[in-house]
Amino acid sequence: MPGSGADSGIGPTLGVEEEFLLLDPATGATVPRASRILAGQPPLPGGATLQRELRATQVEAATGICRTAEELGEQLGAGRRALAEAARLHDSVIAASGTAVLSGPATLGDNDGRFARIDETYRGMVADYEACGCHVHVGVPDRETAVAVMNRVAPWLPVLLALSVNSPIDRGRDTGYASWRIVQQARFPGAGVPPYFASAAAYEAEVARLVDCGALVDPGMTFWLVRPSATLPTLEFRVADTTATPGEAVLQALLSRALVRRALDDLSRGAPPPRLSPQVAAAAVWAAARDGLAGTAVDAVRARRVPARWAVYALLTHLRPALEETGDLGTVRALMRGLYERGTGAERQRRALAAGFPALIALLTSRA
């Protein structure tokens, strides 16, 4: 149960789910071997789990409930190592990328239950949908609080995306985007930044309407980039691409927790949440998906373009008190410094591709 506790003393608890691709080590193409790999039940830290994803070419590693950056980093590293070793036993490697740089045959027909209903509902949209994300769960006291916090963190979701972009290559071509995964996800009904909700009841009513309209398979499914978890007492951030390294996943988690903590402080002071234009919010997500940290961003509150790194600075300024309270400010600064020095995952993928496709595959699998 990732991040299912509400508070750890230093801040809300954390948990992370990371989705990975399974590749043929010789060709770099995705291979449908998830069931065989997971059947071996690789050893994991306490509370951590492995599970299937929509396509048989994907696997997911979820941490247990974590309270510090160090604990989270250890569990993320252990999960990646366990999956890598299990994949090796089945002539596969795991790749940390938001999209498949080279895809094998589609894997429809390998699903049953809920996955089968998803295949039937979305059809060609999911037949080759191998997108992989990094989902952060932050503990919250209750569902009413989760919705109130969701309203307050919404403007910052595009910045979290810009920091995580790691899917510029899709099926052998450079898409021109830093996160092609988000472009693919935008095809689904209700994707992107969630609208404002006045209460948990209003949120539940809207989800129920989307299910009744046939746009969602069940109430546990939404495509918003942040949402109250359907099964855990957490707010789930679903904006980031699967990150290139465990450290970048830790960065996403610490920033997400700080956003929740800052939102809780604002809520206790009675500060109203910003009301975003849905079209401007969509433009902010699109700009982050296109350019990552390399170009301009859209300030979703002020509805204007700004340099992407200015948007990151604004986020860190907004979160500094919360990061100081949890003792995470130094860790976040170090992780940000490393990200700026190396470049985003998308930038690293493009540099590797310039050296040849084998170099790209080596990059994607070396730190998994």
Describe the structure.
There is one protein chain. With 368 residues, the chain is an alpha+beta fold. The protein has a single domain, classed as 2-Layer Sandwich (Creatine Kinase, Chain A, domain 2), CATH 3.30.590. 45% of the residues lie in helices and 14% in strands. The chain has 13 helices and eleven strands. Strands 1, 2, 3, 4, 5, 8 and 9 form a seven-stranded antiparallel beta sheet that branches. Helix 2 packs antiparallel against helix 8. The radius of gyration is 19 Å and the shape is globular. The two termini are 22 Å apart. About 1% of the residues have low confidence.
Mean pLDDT: 91
Distance linking N and C termini: 22 Å
Radius of gyration: 19 Å
Low-confidence stretches: 4-8
Q: What composes the largest sheet?
A: 7 strands, antiparallel
Instruction: Kindly estimate the percentage of residues that lie in beta strands according to DSSP.
Output: 5-15%
What is the oligomeric state here? single chain
CATH architecture: 2-Layer Sandwich
Principal-axis shape: globular
Structural class by secondary-structure content? alpha+beta
What's the CATH C level?
A: Alpha Beta
Order of helices and strands: EHEEHEHEHHEEHHEEHHEEHHHH
Count of strand segments: 11
Give the tally of structural domains.
1
Provide a count of the helices.
13
CATH-defined topology = Creatine Kinase, Chain A, domain 2
Percent helix range: 40-55%
GO biological process, one term: modified amino acid biosynthetic process
Family: Belongs to the glutamate--cysteine ligase type 2 family. YbdK subfamily.
Keywords: ATP-binding, Ligase, Nucleotide-binding
Protein name: Putative glutamate--cysteine ligase 2
